[in-house]
UniProtKB/TrEMBL annotation:
It is a multi-pass membrane protein. It holds the Pfam family DUF1232. The keyword Membrane applies. It is found in: Endomembrane system. It comes from the Bacteria. Keywords: Membrane, Transmembrane, Transmembrane helix. This is DUF1232 domain-containing protein. It comes from Anoxybacillus flavithermus NBRC 109594. One of its GO terms (cellular component) is endomembrane system.
Length: 86
């Protein structure tokens, strides 16, 4: 249920992600790790469920994106979480 709510609040995460990468409170190693995760997510062509299966095929892509965002939220400083109401 939490992942479903997270999915519907996706528009709020764009400024959060930008602030996450601009924040001086977060170690450069973590920023690079998350950047590599995002790049890998978009450029590695492997899917558990092929995208040509319409909606079902995109579910694994959304799940991976939500897992990355959830992990970013956990590692973000409290000031950043409160700023965006997360």
């Amino acid at each position: 249920m939490r992942r479903i709510r997270l999915f519907f609040k996706i528009s709020r995460f764009i400024p959060f992600v930008i602030s996450f990468f601009r924040s001086r409170e977060i170690a450069l190693r973590k920023k690079i790790a998350y950047l590599l995760l995002f790049i890998g997510y978009f450029f590695i062509p492997f899917d558990a469920i092929p995208d040509w299966l319409a909606v079902i095929g995109m579910l694994d892509d959304v799940a991976v994106l939500m897992l990355i965002l959830k992990s970013m939220i956990k590692t973000a400083p409290n000031t950043l979480k409160h700023k965006y109401g997360i």
